[in-house]
Each structure stands twice: as C-alpha cells, then as structure tokens.
User: Fold this.
Amino acid sequence: MLIRIVTAVACLAIGVVLRANGLGLVQLAIFAALVVITVLMPASAAPALVIAFAAVVMTFADGNPLRIGVLVLIPLLHLVHVTSALAVVIPRKAGVEMSALRAPARRFAAVQAVALALAGIAALLPSGPTPVPLEVAGLASAALVAALVALRI
Assistant:
C-alpha cells in the first residue's frame, strides 16, 4: 500500500508542476482521472499515459527545454514508472522489507544521476542553428546505430 501512496504523491507533484506550466482545468481533470486509474490499476496502461501526458504538455509549453519544471518532472515521472511497476508485483496488503527495495532504489539513483548529467551537458551546448555537416553526421551515426541494432536482432 505504501508504494501506491508514493505513486499518488508523485502524481500529485506532477499535477502541480503541470498546472504551474499552464495546464488548463479540463486537462487537469483528465490527468486526475489517469492518476486515479494509475493508483488503482498500476498494471494498466495508465502509468504510461500519465508519463506521456506530462511529456506532451511540457513539450508544447512555452519556455526553455531545460527549465526547472522539466528538470523536476524527470525524477517524478521516473518515480511513477518505478513505483507502478513495483505495485504490480507486490500485493496491496503485503509487508515490504526496506532491504528489498535497495536494488530498485540504486537503479533509480543511477538513472537519475545519468539523466542529470545529460541535462547538464545539454545546458552547456550552444543554442541556435546546427551546421548542416553536423546534422548529416548525426543522422548518419543514428542510422548506423539502428542498422547495427537491427543486425543483432
């Protein structure tokens, strides 16, 4: 039950961030319905819809891509993902030893450290138009990675 409460609190915080970034009341009501479904049925598609909803709202909101709202949402959305996944496999009334949550907590912290490092690197990159040769090189390298992945499958 504690895991579902953590999910609900994370979703509440996400709702506050979205509202602060211009989410309307009708859209907030839709988000609230998704949150209720996420907490009651974490094995459904609702957690993914909560994450996608927040990502779409922040994508179309005005402002810097690395503004504080986006940076706050990264760990919150990841927390919803992790706690929803744990809520699926842990029965609602089961007692959970805190030692059992160490491995997921370590993975969570590692992913957040990498995400924060990438955001820091992105903040250091120059803004403005990208030179055409650099765009072509980036596209070619992405195509190479996709081809290598496809060949391994």
